[in-house]
């Protein structure tokens, strides 16, 4: 039996290759993947060659310890079923549905610690959003919204929409969403997120308590800085890779005592770390996946053999899609 896997061979060059299927050794599981989600943020930086080659793909995920060097496999959201185990002590895993932070491939081998069992009540395509919803939860915890505050969020991609859905449950006075693409605005409104505006329609005299930048756009980050009030918080969720970001920090930034806060899902907010760990956050994520049913954000499916077309489509028509999924 052969395995199929996606490789980034060079910037703008993606291939689906075939190779020998690895067998699980003692203490390992063999997982057959059903779906994997393409990240329109980090993965598209990899696709465009906008990642630092000297940096690890991830600091904490064991399956992503290689550097961003071509050719490479990359991806971090797949769901599948355990079909084989390496020894009899793991037989109870056979047939279990799991999520994993693995690159795009039809099969993979992993120790049990490298997969997360999917609760029975969660559909495969909802579970695909585990990583992105975990990021959304982390962003909201870093923002630390307070009763009655006014918030603004820039960017309604997958993580932006999920973050907005989580924030929408808070008793805020206002939550304004800023998105340049009409298609994504319409999707937000279908999800009950009604206060959506174009970037040109948000003005600096509308002072917010906090702003969240999840757009991947340096221009949006500057707008976020411009629209918060005194001692306002700007949570930076985008990873810009090697893109240079030029900001105006010389006018009101210091006098307004504004706070730029970096948010990264691989660690817990320092303000919460004494009471929260990743296991506690995981429980919250599964609860939200059951409630929000984010599979409604999936706009396109491509078979793994057409992975190159999927990345090309996202790159050329970002205004026409939200979550693109590979099928196996």
Name the descriptors.
328 residues; alpha/beta; Quinone Oxidoreductase, Chain A, domain 1; Rossmann fold; 2 domains; seven-stranded mixed β-sheet; six-stranded parallel β-sheet; 27% strand
Short description:
This protein is an alpha/beta fold and 328 residues long.
What does this structure look like?
With 328 residues, the chain is α/β, with parallel strands linked by helices. The protein has 2 domains: 2-123 and 294-327, Medium-chain alcohol dehydrogenases, catalytic domain (Quinone Oxidoreductase, Chain A, domain 1, Alpha-Beta Complex), CATH 3.90.180; 135-262, 3-Layer(aba) Sandwich (Rossmann fold). Helices cover 24% and strands 27% of the residues. It is built from 8 helices and 15 strands. The chain has helices spanning 42-48, 124-127, 130-143, 158-167, 182-190, 218-227, 278-292, 307-316; strands at residues 2-10, 13-20, 29-38, 78-85, 97-100, 107-110, 116-117, 150-154, 174-178, 196-197, 208-213, 228-236, 259-262, 298-303, 323-327. Strands 3, 4, 5, 6, 7, 14 and 15 form a 7-stranded mixed beta sheet that branches. A 6-stranded parallel beta sheet has the order 10-9-8-11-12-13, sandwiched between helices. Helix 5 links the parallel strand 9 and strand 10. Helix 3 packs across helix 4. It is globular. The protein starts with a strand and ends with a strand. The model has no long low-confidence stretch (mean pLDDT 94).
